[in-house]
TrEMBL record:
Organism of derivation: Oceanodroma tethys
Protein name (record): TILB protein
Gene3D superfamilies: Ribonuclease Inhibitor
UniProt keywords, alphabetically: Leucine-rich repeat, Repeat
Presence of keyword Repeat: yes
Encoding gene (name): Lrcc6
InterPro entries (UniProt xref): LRR_dom_sf
Keyword Lipid metabolism attached: no
Length: 223
């Protein structure tokens, strides 16, 4: 039997009547959209469509103002369960509006490439447990100070030099394949001379020794 609330389970927070909650008032919003109308039909859940209606231009504008992601300074968009392409596109649409965000968490969203996104004021970014394979796939973050990239799929650190001209102080790369690269800490430290912390460990004097370029692309063998 269907619960009384069943027809509301895919309703977005902006569609709930009689409230004036803005996007910048939500620190951990659920922004993942529900299934498409076609998916709902094949699931046998077309009864939820009766709550949907064609939005007018005025309603679309009011929704845009209500979301007001441009005013967010601190936001957690982790664990969104982005299962379909249109949901990923909607998620990226929101990221593009975060022009004032300073602290942003995007953990466990199966993200692979958000290089088209620019976060001009972001100082702290957490993208743990995603599918990034390169530093080139990260958003543009010119003011970044603390970056956490643990449990991704970064094999080599050759693209890390892009952060040389940023105020990056702390970097976490734990549980990435590049962590097993020989002279890993020296390679990172030489690429980012202003870095103070790597994997939550302060930079050590031995980390500042020049790396042996012959080991640059070699990996450790664990027996």
């Amino acid at each position: 039997f269907k619960l009384p609330s069943d027809s509301f389970k895919y309703l977005g927070w902006c569609d709930v009547e009689e409230h004036d909650v803005r996007g910048n008032q939500l620190h951990c919003p659920r922004v993942r959209e529900g299934p498409s109308e076609e998916d709902l039909f094949f699931r046998g859940e077309q009864h939820t469509l009766k709550k949907r209606k064609q939005e007018t231009d005025t309603e679309k504008w009011q929704k845009k103002l209500q979301e007001n992601w441009e005013n967010c300074s601190e936001l957690n968009l982790s664990f969104q369960d982005l299962g379909d392409l249109y949901q990923v596109e909607n998620f990226k649409r929101i990221l593009q509006r975060l022009i004032r965000v300073e602290k942003l968490w995007l953990m466990d969203n199966s993200l692979t490439d958000v290089s088209a996104i620019r976060l001009p004021r972001c100082r702290e970014l957490n993208v743990n447990k995603n599918h990034f394979a390169s530093f080139k796939q990260l958003p543009k973050i010119p003011q970044i100070q603390h970056l956490s990239l643990s449990e991704n799929n970064i094999m080599i650190i050759s693209g890390i030099s892009d952060f040389r001209h940023t105020p990056l102080e702390s970097l976490i790369l734990k549980k990435n394949p590049c962590e097993f690269q020989e002279r890993y800490r020296q390679l990172v430290s030489s690429s980012l001379p202003n870095l103070k912390m790597l994997d939550s460990i302060p930079k050590l004097p031995k980390d500042c020794s020049p790396p042996d370029t012959s080991f640059f692309f070699k990996m450790c063998t664990i027996l």
